[in-house]
């Protein structure tokens, strides 16, 4: 590796602009004549709209236009769709209820958009929005998925009787039942995976600009995947054909999944720009974000895990009810199915697995992918079950896991996934050594002397990144392919632009992608610019989510670089009168191997563009594109160990140690990878200890709609993390990369909860493990 | 936020006059509560009368045992006052644990006391220290001042000028922070006067706002030690229940925090 190449902890190129306040986010964008939007939103969780009276509002100062759903429908703007078809086990397709960008018949959650007000200032837009009189007939609401399935509950969509969206299964139910019937021991547990609000630092925003002279739209938006936004808005929502719609996602301040989806606001602001003749900007405030950003998780599951007399797992049966909220968001159906049940084998060889998943409408904001998306739910379920089983069987949690690890690869699980490489024991050993697992008993005794209850817990996670290949996901119902694109454009002086279809919203692409180029060509990363996030500048791409940018996005860059290098070698061979196969690229030069003949990189680039002396028949220029479609998912895995001290007087949990041993395959920039792990663990600790979206079950009001009531993790809630990396390179992509963006959030919650339940001697604990809950569980145990 | 008129008052009289002339005026101190409420459009004063530049409201003075904290003293001023630290370190410690540095540099004791948030820290200190709230019109004992959730004895237009109290022989504050807001989910301030009189005031937990706990006071008057509280039972029936903590848990916290406050004193 060079100082800036693969494996170097290069400081992030983009941080100067972020840290000096020079980032340019959607809300920083301003165009002449721009006006401001405010949305009229439903204050009720469920109601029929009897009428909307705008007469008073229309005359308010500064008002340019007020638009409602009927007009949207008259202009044939389409309903918002879910892009992944799931079929129930009876063969029927999922029951997708209509999600109108502006509701005009029924509202189904608090915050459902009803009208848009465009005015000279935000204050005036808000004033006028308050003067829009919507006459609602309030209907009963239901917020809990389990309850929504019961008889006699409020019904959300006529298409979905009993609020059931689909009743899906994966695996072999008979085999799992047989294993349970014949087991020497069965561990049973019911688990709830708490509902989370994503809380990216930058709230969502959009600026819709219609140019009547060109009949062309521009959409600035806080998106993780601008090309997908353009595709969906043109193909499904009928906003504009793709060639007349430019989508730009400039600097984006975090997404965690919540900015994958196309929300009503982008669609409506573009349409409103045409209707009102002015550019329309909308920026969400924090409470609006709590109300309208897609939430994550919200599962209730029952689990049965069967063991033989040697403590080998013989079967697993899972029954999950997943809350999808009031409407089906873009990937909502995939999260509790193909991103969840397919991971239920964990790191273990389990001969029989069956999962049944029912997804349910409730009067809450839609639920979709949030950092980890399905995999945290699977990992929490498995790893709490394993810990519970170890306690019931009287064996050490490490021993039970070791006994059941998958050890030969490739390994075909009974739930679709084919694990390609891994060494689970290596991570387990590294984590246990780092945590001084064997010294725990002494530390526990010492803590007891101080009146503290000390506990230790582990979690061995596996996850699947870079969801692929396109043909396979297509056969499972995906509406899109999951390849990635790249174009490497060498300028005449040898500097380089890389257009990537993936998108950075905090991950550091501008550094890591440049490191890859620097590594290949031996030129400084300063000479490489990474271009992303603008459909006019970058070829079609699929964006960033599911930890796919490295494994899939960079692999596309590798393919394009291969082509660039091949052409550059031909030119160099021609200029130096050498054989093409003798040319090597090193330290910014093209050399004839074994001689002192060399040409600097820029000179070859210049030769390509002057075209004065190219090999016969060669086209001028040096620019190549590639699309990369992976042949498999990648499978990062690892072992997390958490040690806690519980204050028995208050139930407060202090995390005294947190160890993460991860196998991400090859690593481009260790510092950035560590940052991703730190952030992921912080979010996982947030889920396990603090965060919880709560709706009032009676009226569907969101109770946790601000930071006064929604507890986010703060720096002083977190310990220093001890990280290490094991490496079994991914065999399916050229760089051997697996992905690291979500692991921290996936692996950490069960390790933490297992540590607390160990400390207090009561396994009956739900997330978030608030002081009150821990205190009550501790008292119940005594 | 709705449009509003801003006035900067130069004296107490000026402030009272400006407010009385306004349609629906409000005093503005640190703005940490009021501005946030206005931004959410939950308050819509026609006029804001800014008190932070009135000389009489500023400063902290300690004369022997008697302490005076100006209403516009920020939490940072209180936390970092050397004189006050010598006289009553517990109140400095309390101020140091309010909110975050931004809040402590803006928020004021006058604003906090006038607001009487049931989860605010200062009300417990004032009640336990038997403090007096000095207004432009009169002096009000803390026991008479805090009348309910967000309710005080202040009359319309009446303005807090200062808070005064006699430094206690010993005092301590223990706060259990709400995991989300980090206001007091339960905070207990204990104070013992030179004459042996003990007061225990609890914030964040009472269904009716800050309150004194006579059982603990008697126990601590008999023996000033954390263990003296071991036998005390805190009745949950008058305590708050919300999504963060139910009354039983708060009852436990009242006792645990009281012990810790004594230990810290
Ligand atoms: C993020 C955050 C965290 C916080 N954490 C805590 C905490 O942990 N503990 C805690 O106790 N508090 C906390 N607070 C509250 C804060 O400390 C302030 O004390 C409080 O907001 C009020 O003080 P202020 O000076 O900002 O008053 P303002 O917001 O300016 O005014 C509050 C009210 O008092 C009235 N008022 C102000 N001054 C006077 C006066 N002199 N006479 C009569 N009426 C007056 C105003 O008209 C208004 O109604 C927090 C606030 C924030 C924003």
Give an overview of the whole structure.
The complex is a heterodimer of chains A (782) and B (265). Chain A has 782 residues and is of the alpha+beta class. Chain A has three domains: 194 residues, Alpha-Beta Complex (Aldehyde Oxidoreductase, domain 3), CATH 3.90.1170; 319 residues, Aldehyde oxidase/xanthine dehydrogenase, molybdopterin binding domain (Aldehyde Oxidoreductase, domain 4), CATH 3.30.365; 146 residues, Aldehyde Oxidoreductase, domain 4 (2-Layer Sandwich), CATH 3.30.365. Helices cover 28% and strands 24% of the residues of chain A. Chain A has 20 helices and 28 strands. A seven-stranded mixed β-sheet of chain A has the order 3-5-1-12-9-10-11, sandwiched between helices. In chain A, strand 9 and strand 10 form a beta hairpin. The radius of gyration of chain A is 27 Å and the shape is globular. Chain A starts with 14 loop residues before the first helix and ends with a helix. By secondary structure, chain B is α+β, with helices and mostly antiparallel strands. Chain B folds into three domains: 46 residues, Uridine Diphospho-n-acetylenolpyruvylglucosamine Reductase, domain 2 (2-Layer Sandwich), CATH 3.30.43.10; 112 residues, Uridine Diphospho-n-acetylenolpyruvylglucosamine Reductase, domain 3 (2-Layer Sandwich), CATH 3.30.465.10; 95 residues, 2-Layer Sandwich (Enolase-like, domain 1). In chain B, 33% of the residues lie in helices and 25% in strands. In chain B, strand 8 and strand 9 form a beta hairpin. Chain B is globular. The chains are: A alpha+beta (782), B alpha+beta (265). The complex binds flavin-adenine dinucleotide. Flavin-adenine dinucleotide binds next to strand 2, helix 2 and helix 7 of chain B.
């Amino acid at each position: 590796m060079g100082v800036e190449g693969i494996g170097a902890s290069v400081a992030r190129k983009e941080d100067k602009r972020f840290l000096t306040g020079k980032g340019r986010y959607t809300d920083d964008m301003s165009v002449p004549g721009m006006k401001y939007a405010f949305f009229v939103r439903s204050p009720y969780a469920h109601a029929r709209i009897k009428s909307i009276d705008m007469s008073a509002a229309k005359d308010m100062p500064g008002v340019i236009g007020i638009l409602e759903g009927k007009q949207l429908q008259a202009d044939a703007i389409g309903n918002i769709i879910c892009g992944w078809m799931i079929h129930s086990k009876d063969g029927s397709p999922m029951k997708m209820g209509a999600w109108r960008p502006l509701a005009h018949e029924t509202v189904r959650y608090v915050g459902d958009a009803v009208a848009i007000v465009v005015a000279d200032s935000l204050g005036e837009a808000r004033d006028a929005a308050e003067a829009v009189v919507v006459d609602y007939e309030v209907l009963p609401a239901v917020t809990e998925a389990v309850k929504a399935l019961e008889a006699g509950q409020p019904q959300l969509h006529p298409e979905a009787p009993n609020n059931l969206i689909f009743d899906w299964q994966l695996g072999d139910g008979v085999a799992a039942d047989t294993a349970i019937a014949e087991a020497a021991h069965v561990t049973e547990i019911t688990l709830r995976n708490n509902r989370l609000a994503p809380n990216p630092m930058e709230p969502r925003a959009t600026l819709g600009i219609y140019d009547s002279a060109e009949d062309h739209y521009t959409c600035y938006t806080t998106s993780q995947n601008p090309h997908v936004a353009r595709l969906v808005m043109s193909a499904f929502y009928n906003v504009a054909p793709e060639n007349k719609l430019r989508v730009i996602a400039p600097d984006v301040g975090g997404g965690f999944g919540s900015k994958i989806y196309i929300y009503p606001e982008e669609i409506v602001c573009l349409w409103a720009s045409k209707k009102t003749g002015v550019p329309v900007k909308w920026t969400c405030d924090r409470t609006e974000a709590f109300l309208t950003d897609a939430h994550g998780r919200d599962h209730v599951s029952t689990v049965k895990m069967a063991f033989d007399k040697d403590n080998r797992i013989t079967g697993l049966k899972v029954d999950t009810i997943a809350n999808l909220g009031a409407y089906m968001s873009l990937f909502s159906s995939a999260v509790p199915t193909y991103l969840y049940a397919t991971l239920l084998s964990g790191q273990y060889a389990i001969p029989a697995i069956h999962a049944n998943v029912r997804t349910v409408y409730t009067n809450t904001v839609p639920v979709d992918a949030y950092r980890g998306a399905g995999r945290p739910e699977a990992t929490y379920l498995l790893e709490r079950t394993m810990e519970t089983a170890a306690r019931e069987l009287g064996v050490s949690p490490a021993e039970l896991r070791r006994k059941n690890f998958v050890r030969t690869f490739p390994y075909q699980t009974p739930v679709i996934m084919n694990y390609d490489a891994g060494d689970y024991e290596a991570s387990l050993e590294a984590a246990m050594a780092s945590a001084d697992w064997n010294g725990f008993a002494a530390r526990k005794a010492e803590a007891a002397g101080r009146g503290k209850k000390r506990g230790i817990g582990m979690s061995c996670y596996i996850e699947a990144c870079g969801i692929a290949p396109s043909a396979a996901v297509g056969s499972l119902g995906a509406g899109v392919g999951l390849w990635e694109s790249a174009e490497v454009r060498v300028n005449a002086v040898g500097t380089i632009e890389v257009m990537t279809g993936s998108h950075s919203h905090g991950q550091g692409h501008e550094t890591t992608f440049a490191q890859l180029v620097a590594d290949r060509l031996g030129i400084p990363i300063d000479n490489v610019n990474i271009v992303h996030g603008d459909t006019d500048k970058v070829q079609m791409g699929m964006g960033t989510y599911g930890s796919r940018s490295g494994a899939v996005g960079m692999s596309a860059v590798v393919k394009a670089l291969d082509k660039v290098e091949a052409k550059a070698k031909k030119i160099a061979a021609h200029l130096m009168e050498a054989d093409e196969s003798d040319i090597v690229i090193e330290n910014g030069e093209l050399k004839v191997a074994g001689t002192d003949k060399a040409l600097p990189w820029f000179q070859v680039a210049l030769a390509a563009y002057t075209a004065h002396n190219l090999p016969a028949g060669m086209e001028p220029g040096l620019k190549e594109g590639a699309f990369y479609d992976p042949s498999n998912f990648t499978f990062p895995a690892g072992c997390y160990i958490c040690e806690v001290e519980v204050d028995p007087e208050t139930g407060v949990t202090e995390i005294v140690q947190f160890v993460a041993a991860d196998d991400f395959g090859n690593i481009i920039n260790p510092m950035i990878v560590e940052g991703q792990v730190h952030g992921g663990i912080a979010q996982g600790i947030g889920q396990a200890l603090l965060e919880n979206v709560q709706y009032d079950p009676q009226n569907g009001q969101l109770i946790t709609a601000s930071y006064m009531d929604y507890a986010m993790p703060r720096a002083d809630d977190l310990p220093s993390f001890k990280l290490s990396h094991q490496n079994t390179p991914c065999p399916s992509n050229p760089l051997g990369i697996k992905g690291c963006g979500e692991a921290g959030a996936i692996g950490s919650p069960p390790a933490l909860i297992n540590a607390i339940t160990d400390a207090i001697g009561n396994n009956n604990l739900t997330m978030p493990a608030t002081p009150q809950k821990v205190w009550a569980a501790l008292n119940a145990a005594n | 936020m709705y449009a509003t008129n801003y006035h900067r008052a130069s004296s107490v009289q000026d402030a009272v006059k400006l407010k009385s002339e306004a349609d629906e005026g409000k005093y503005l101190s640190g703005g940490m509560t009021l501005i946030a409420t206005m931004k959410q459009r939950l308050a819509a004063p026609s006029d804001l009368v800014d008190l932070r530049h009135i000389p009489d409201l500023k400063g902290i003075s300690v004369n022997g045992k008697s302490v005076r904290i100006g209403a516009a003293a920020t939490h940072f001023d209180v936390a970092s006052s050397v004189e006050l630290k010598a006289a009553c370190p517990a109140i400095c410690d309390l101020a140091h644990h309010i909110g975050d540095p931004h809040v402590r540099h803006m928020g004021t004791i006058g604003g906090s006391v006038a607001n009487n948030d049931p989860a605010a820290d200062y009300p417990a200190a004032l009640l336990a220290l038997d403090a007096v709230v000095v207004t432009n019109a009169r002096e009000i004992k803390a026991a008479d001042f805090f009348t309910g959730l967000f309710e005080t004895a202040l009359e319309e237009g009446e303005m807090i000028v200062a808070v005064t109290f006699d430094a206690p022989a010993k005092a301590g504050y223990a706060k259990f922070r709400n995991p989300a807001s980090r206001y007091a989910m339960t905070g207990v301030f204990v104070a013992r006067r030179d004459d042996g009189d003990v007061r225990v005031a609890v914030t964040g937990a009472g269904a009716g706002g800050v309150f004194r706990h006579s059982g603990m006071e008697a126990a601590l008057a008999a023996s000033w030690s954390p263990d003296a509280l071991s036998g005390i039972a805190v009745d949950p029936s008058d305590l708050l229940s919300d999504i963060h903590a139910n009354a039983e848990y708060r009852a436990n916290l009242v006792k645990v925090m009281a012990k810790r406050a004594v230990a810290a004193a």
